[in-house]
Amino acid sequence: MKHGFGIIGLGLIAEMHAKALKEIPGADLVACFDVDMARADSFSKTWGGLPFHDLNAFLACPELEIVTICTPSGLHMESAVAAAHVKKHVVVEKPLEITVERCDAILQAAKDNHVLLSGIFPSRFHRVAKIVKEAVDSGRLGTIVLADAYVKWFRSQDYYDASGWKGTWALDGGGALMNQSIHAIDLLQWFMGPVVEISASIGTIAHERIEVEDTAVATLRFANGALGVVEGTTGAYPGFFKKIEISGSQGSIVLEEENLSTWKFLTELPHDTSIRAEFAALTATGGGAADPSAIGHHGHKMQFLDIIQALESGTQPLVNGEEARKAVEIIQGIYLSAKEGRTVQLPL
What is each CA distance from 285 to 101, 109, 170, 288, in whole angstroms? Predict the structure, then answer.
């Protein structure tokens, strides 16, 4: 079965979408849209699809079935709602939006128009992430006491200066957390379940001329009783793989990008040795730690395959709208705690 995809917003991340779609039989890039006419024309020549400079004309493309949105974060809602209203299925690059209120507007539009909605979180589709999820869900770690996410990345001052929207509250929605650490925060809550309490501090320490945080630390309490820490920064040279640590009374796991640096349990199973060997050094890219373009598109490809399967089977994708909203709510809670100097309870 063929599916016609179109991309809104044709910057760096749109290329990852195009690369992933190109490797999926039956996934045809039929249209692309950007307000910058030259960018739309250039993208079309490189990746295919008819170029559009008018959003309504793009959405009216007869072959278009699924829209993927790669605009600046704070503009996701407008494009997503417009696509849903003309009965196009909607896939939104992370974050789903920059506030839970704007996320909810997208969810409502998708519900009202009976279209599929998915938020892009490709790290969930790495095989190692699924193995960690299975270990946690099956109780192999015993009583989990700590669950932490560390994203110590590096972005130069030029990274912010060269952009018209990065580092702004209106369009980026935040800094080191909303733009970079959100992948790790999503994985952490996917592994652990809901966060119910947050206490946080944020600061702009290593960069100038940006409105948002480049460094943040938060303590979390999960609904299952475990405690946790989130540390995120774009000021840590030279940049390190994102890391998630989960520690329990019967085992501990440390995941660094797609590498398992720790996989130890009180009760070993026969396949543990092969898991340690397979995932000891799997990551083939920089993981985006210092270079935003140094990421693979294999996670996007696997997520698009999941979305197509959901469409064809009439089921929900792994990261539906409600799932994509969760990391945004945690980050918004961190910002609220830091701003007001108090502990914040979730849900907001």
Answer: 35, 37, 31, 8
List, for residues 144-199, the tens digit of each pLDDT value: 999 999 999 999 999 999 988 999 999 999 999 999 999 999 999 999 999 999 99
Structure token pair of residue 336? 């609220």
Question: 257 and 269 in contact (C-beta within 8 Å)?
Answer: no
Residues in the chain, total: 348
Pairing of strands 50-52, 27-33: parallel
In this structure, are residues 146 and 220 in contact, taking their beta carbons and an 8 Å threshold? no
- Specify the pLDDT at position 241: 94
195-203, strands of its sheet edge to edge: 259-265, 251-256, 243-248, 144-152, 227-233, 215-222, 195-203, 344-345
Q: Which residues pair with 32 in a beta bridge?
A: 7, 51
The two three-digit tokens of residue 116, written as one number: 């599929």
Residue 88 tokens read as: 């196009």
> Is the separation of the CB atoms in 33 and 52 below 8 Å?
yes
Query: Could you give phi then psi for residue 272, rounded to 5 degrees?
Result: -65, -40
Distance CA 254, CA 312 (A): 36
User: In the structure encoding, which two tokens stand for residue 141, read together?
Assistant: 């770690």
Beta-carbon contacts of residue 158 (< 8 Å; ≥ 6 apart): none
